[in-house]
Design goal:
The structure holds two protein chains of two kinds.
Chain A (H helix, E strand, L loop, with lengths): L12 H33 L9
Chain B lengths: L28 H7 L2 H16 L7 H25 L1 H4 L17 H22 L2 H25 L3 H10 L1 H10 L4 H24 L1 H7 L4 H4 L2 H24 L5 H23 L3 H31 L9
Helix pairs in contact in B: 2-3, 2-8, 2-14, 3-5, 3-6, 3-8, 5-6, 6-7, 6-8, 7-9, 8-9, 9-12, 9-14, 12-13, 13-14
The chains are: A mainly alpha, B mainly alpha.
């Protein structure tokens, strides 16, 4: 068996650029998800969060 | 499925020269976005928002916005799963042949994974953001459209879009469930309006695309019952739609603006359906069907816009005290 069989074909510049864009899009979606959970938590707690024993 | 593959792993045989493995490189971000049927997502956001507005219950704006976003993502996910399943028939029809999967820009398994992840994610986030009734309704909508409609009804019966229309009619019900935690008469009436509106809307298009549907083997009404029977049924559904369109006025959540819009719009739907019935040949048939298709979109948009304006801009004027 030649080792060539298990080698991925090098990506063309266009393919590499597409993959980079997809990676950035996934990062943006993950960041948005984090922001959603953060904002949602604050919104659900509301002003009551300040009304507690310190 | 007969889907062209752009990147396939090379098969190995004893007499073949070893070749480097070609990795799947995937499509553009815009191709993945196209899988979500963005125009349908906009319609879903709009109708779900109206479902929220007619409930007249205050909702925390952040919770409302995130809930709407999740309803839209869930609808997009079901559209993605639909495109995954229907890639073989999409490839046959000119209207859909350029979609990302039949065009080879996205692999079917990529679309399947994308659709499943978004479906599960949207339902979970909606449940956490609002309540689990709304999340359950969204899950039901996704399964109904992706499994019940796409995998079974669409290729099995000419009543496909009649029954399948329930999936497209559910967003206002989900919207009301988000803000009230229950399902009321308002969203049930909005569900019925979209449900009864769907057949004349789609059959108008099916009349001029019947050749395409026949080529793909989809049993749309004009292909099974014939164009004449379809035209008659378009009139029947438009007749039923007329009083249902006016129901919000009699139930007290549609005011003067809505009442006038529903009255004129309902008459317009009836007029266009009769026009379709009378014009059965050549270019006149095509123009009549396209007119019906276009007006039906305007009808639904105006009815829901009137309700939204009355409930969010203070334009509500009581018709029946």
């Amino acid at each position: 068996m030649s080792g060539l069989q298990n080698q991925p074909r090098p990506l063309t510049p266009e393919e590499a650029q597409r993959r980079r864009k997809r990676s950035l899009a996934i990062a943006a979606v993950l960041f948005t998800l984090v922001a959603i959970f953060y904002v949602l938590t604050i919104a659900k707690l509301g002003p009551q969060v300040l009304n507690r024993a310190l | 499925m007969q889907v062209p593959m752009t990147s396939l792993s090379n098969s190995l045989s004893a007499d073949a020269e070893p070749q480097p493995v070609i990795m799947a490189v995937g499509g553009e971000v815009s191709d993945f976005f196209a899988l979500l049927k963005p125009r349908v997502m906009v319609l879903v956001i709009f109708t779900a928002l109206v479902g929220m507005a007619v409930s007249n219950v205050h909702i925390q704006p952040v919770v409302g916005t995130i809930s709407l976003l999740m309803i839209a993502v869930g609808a997009g996910a079901s559209g993605c799963l639909n495109m995954w399943w229907d890639a073989d028939i999409d490839a046959v029809m000119t209207r859909t042949a350029k979609r990302p999967i039949p065009d080879g820009r996205i692999q079917p398994n990529e679309a399947l994974a994308f659709g499943i992840v978004l479906s599960v994610g949207s339902v979970l986030v909606l449940g956490l953001a609002s309540n689990w009734l709304a999340a359950g309704l969204l899950a039901f909508t996704i399964v109904f459209y992706a499994v019940f409609y796409s995998m079974w009804l669409k290729r099995a019966t000419p009543q496909n879009i009649v029954i399948g229309g329930a999936a497209g009619a559910l967003p206002p019900v989900i919207g009301q469930a988000v803000v009230t935690g229950s399902v009321g008469i308002e969203s049930i009436v909005l569900f019925l309006i979209i449900f009864i509106w769907t057949p004349p809307h789609f059959w108008a298009l099916a009349l001029i695309k019947s050749g395409e549907y026949a080529k793909a083997g989809i049993p749309m009404m004009p292909n099974v019952a014939g164009p004449q029977s379809t035209r008659r049924q378009i009139i029947y559904y438009s007749l039923v739609l007329f009083p249902i369109g006016l129901a919000p006025v009699f139930l007290g959540f549609g005011g003067l603006l809505y009442g006038v819009t529903a009255l004129l719009g309902g008459l317009g739907m009836l007029a266009f359906s009769v026009h379709v019935f009378r014009n059965r040949e050549g270019e006149a048939e095509r123009k009549a069907a396209l007119g019906m298709f276009g007006f039906s979109i305007l009808y639904l948009f105006l009815l829901f816009s009137a309700l939204l304006a009355e409930h969010s801009l203070g334009l509500f004027r009581t018709v029946i005290a």
